Amino acid sequence: MQLILWILYGVLILASGIYGSDFVGHSHWDYVIWIPPLDEIQTFQFWLDIVVNVTLYAPFAFLFLQYRNSTHRSALVTAVLLGLLLSCAVELYQVYSHNRRPSPLDIACNLSGTIIGTLLWKAWRRSARQTPQLKAPAIPIP
Where does the record place the VanZ-like domain (predicted)? Predict the structure, then answer.
């Protein structure tokens, strides 16, 4: 069940990244905003975009780690790398679109969200282990 949820959430991220775009057969590397201009940084939309990008990827990592159900470092690194791969794929797709603006800042925010999701999952697992479990009574009660 966790695998299905994780895959569906990944599809949701892909759909949100390519929705409304018009894919063309040539790249637009000149549309890439390598460093955001100061007037853009001062807008509410800029900061909202950062919050949305970070928030969008945290559940991606969390759901993946729920599926893997492992605290091994390899599972945590895999979650972060999959988030990075998905983010790069969406931004690369946007390079080939007329009406989307790819940005390395989006990749950094998405990666940050993936790392935050990983840390949240680790904290959740730690708290779940420390929660005392109720024991069954020694004598069954009818």
Answer: 7-124
Structure tokens at 137: 């009574």
Whether the per-residue pLDDT at 132 is higher than 90: the answer is no
- Nearest to residue 105, comparing CAs of 118, 94, 97, 96? 94
Quick check: is 140 in a domain?
A: no
State the Cα–Cα distance between residues 135 and 37, nearest whole angstrom.
60
Residue 32 placed within a domain: no
Query: Which residue, among 129, 82, 11, 109, has the nearest Cα to 74 in the 3D structure?
Result: 82
Residues 37-93 have pLDDT tens digits of: 999 999 999 999 999 999 999 999 999 999 998 888 999 999 999 999 999 999 999
Please check whether residue 31 lies inside any domain of the structure. no
Question: Residue 86 domain-assigned?
Answer: yes
Are 55 and 113 contacting, i.e. CB atoms less than 8 angstroms apart?
Answer: yes
Q: How many domains in the chain? A: 1
Domain range for residue 121? 2-10+45-126
The CA distance from 16 to 14, in Å, is 5
Helices (H), the chain: 2-18, 38-41, 44-68, 73-95, 104-130
